[in-house]
Amino acid sequence: MIRMTRWAAAMLLSGLMAAPAFGAAVLQCVPYARTVSGVDIRGDALSWWDQADGQYKRGHTPKKGAVLAFRPYGPMVLGHVAVVSKVLDDRRVLIRHANWSVPGSIEEDVLAIDVSDAGDWSQVRVWHSPTGQMGARTNPTYGFIYPARAKLHDFVPDPALGASVRFAKVDTDNWDQKPVPAVLRAEPAMPVRMARAGNGPVPRLKTDMRAIAFADSAPAERSLSAIISDVKRDAVLN
């Protein structure tokens, strides 16, 4: 979900950022998470936590197949949702999500770490594929939404959901199983560099260079009416 989600369109309306030239729409996090997790909730990501009440169990313990619901924060005004694909330990999971590092991108089995003081996954940092490292921003979350059946479903891109690019999966065998250092939890403003076994490099994703070219492209001039049309279309898709 970041950079040109529906929240980004809302930011465009406020004049805080410009729309990139990538076509009329990009894949959003909501339809991707709904397909992969099987959690049948619709609407903006920020509404998923409340909508899940009474429909699905919720909690603060990561489990495979669960949806991690992000709170609105900073430019991410409509929140975000991601699906847990593997639990590495109490503080680290791999997730699958869309529209985060690059508009419309699909990132599979990338790292998310809990940096909250209480260890309740209320504050997380997420892998940033273009730079091959943990993102610098700390993101607040609501918690996990657990599907009735923990199963990961394949996602086949559908043009009706918007244009998308897919990043390669990270090699999970290269991640060590060490816990997150305490200093990372105590100093959330510090850049996160994961501890690793031996002297080997931190795993990096091989990226689709089309995505990088898109991320680095100059913003296009677009009319307000075109932006509003995109917002309305995204609302129908979600």
TrEMBL record:
The keyword Glycoprotein does not apply. InterPro entries: CHAP_dom, Papain-like_cys_pep_sf. Residues 1-23 form the signal peptide. It comes from the Bacteria. Keywords: Signal. SUPFAM superfamilies: Cysteine proteinases. Pfam families: CHAP. The keyword Signal applies. Residues 4-125 form the Peptidase C51 domain. This is CHAP domain-containing protein. It comes from Sphingobium rhizovicinum. The lineage of its organism: Bacteria, Pseudomonadati, Pseudomonadota, Alphaproteobacteria, Sphingomonadales.
